Amino acid sequence: MARKRPDPVQVVKERRDGALNAILHGVPYIRFLGVEFDRRGDELTAVLPYDDKLIGNPMLPALHGGVTASFLEITAIITLSWVSMWEDIESGAIDVQQIRDGNLPRLPRTIDFTVDYLRSGLPRDAYARARVSRAGRRYASVHVEGWQDNRDRMFAQATGHFLMPSRGALAGA
Amino acid sequence: MVDKTTIARNFLSVVPYAHALGLTLESIGDGVAVMGLPYSKDIVGDPDKGIVHGGAVSAAMDTCCGAAVMCHPSSPSLTATIDLRIDYMRAAAPGQTITTTATCYHVGRNVAFVRAVATDDDTEHPVAMATGSFTVER
């Protein structure tokens, strides 16, 4: 049997980036913090560009602990959602146009989230990557690492548990 | 004489992210701080239902816990979060202010232990609860 000819690269990229951007832009708090995602294949790196409003201690200055927690939680939720949607995005089972039209896929809900503050967040860009330790049908466990200048010197890490949306569920459906 | 609440309120206004979230100080003293996180479209995580993002609740809890440490009678000069765990019990009702109450229940030489609870108008059923440990600078 002949193998299906792969889609042209721009079609693949548009589908992947379209799905990712649609999810991101649908969440106001992600925009409020200014979190962006850098995608390489299926790997996501969250980027938090520095902004003066993100400061918690103006004397040091250092990023607000709540900013760090928010940034890591957003990274965990989006990565988890991305990983669970990946197959469907690739196969075309998820219609990117539908997402763009505001039919957002339902995001995982946080059950609990624990942040380990390793050093103070410096007043500059921060990055984070999440690893889905286990993704069950209903529950998932995710670990996130955040760093700034040096990948080997994390400034915070976190672990969280999430309740997965029922498969294929759209918000409001 | 300037009372502690005024100092703390001024302090909140110089914390840029507390200001960005619009956090308000309701009361403070003896290791207990109460703050309000007003509802705003900016902090929504689920746009379809208008539910506030957990991260914004975390930020309010973290600020409130830090304030609880600072107003403890042992008067630490500075504090920073070591660890903060949050359990999200239910979604906060859209449009309602989320009130966080943090209690600093033990302060050692180096570490302070804090618990916090967040509620919306239905104060009987908490939205989230937090447990944290904080550094104590003397």
Present the secondary structure layout.
The complex is a heterodimer of chains A (173) and B (138).
Chain A: H1 9-25, H2 28-33, E1 36-40, E2 43-48, E3 55-57, E4 62-63, H3 65-91, H4 96-100, E5 109-117, E6 126-135, E7 139-147, E8 154-163
Antiparallel strand pairs in A: 1-2, 2-6, 3-4, 5-8, 6-7, 7-8
Helix pairs in contact in A: 1-3
Chain B: H1 4-13, H2 16-21, E1 24-29, E2 32-37, E3 44-46, E4 51-52, H3 54-70, E5 81-88, E6 98-107, E7 111-119, E8 128-135
Antiparallel strand pairs in B: 1-2, 2-6, 3-4, 5-8, 6-7, 7-8
General form of chain A: globular
The most extensive interface between chains reads:
A-B, 38 and 38 residues
- CATH level 4 superfamily of chain B: Hotdog Thioesterase
What name goes with the CATH superfamily of chain A?
A: Hotdog Thioesterase
**Derived structural class of chain A:** alpha+beta
Stretches with pLDDT under 50, minimum 5 residues of chain A: none
On the 0-100 scale, what is the average pLDDT of chain A?
Answer: 90
Please count the beta strands of chain B (DSSP E, at least 2 residues each).
Answer: 8
Give the spatial strand order of the biggest sheet of chain A.
1-2-6-7-8-5
CATH top level assignment of chain A: Alpha Beta
Order of helices and strands of chain B: HHEEEEHEEEE
Element-by-element helix/strand order of chain A: HHEEEEHHEEEE
Q: What global shape of chain B is seen?
A: globular
> How many structural domains can be distinguished in the coordinates of chain B?
1
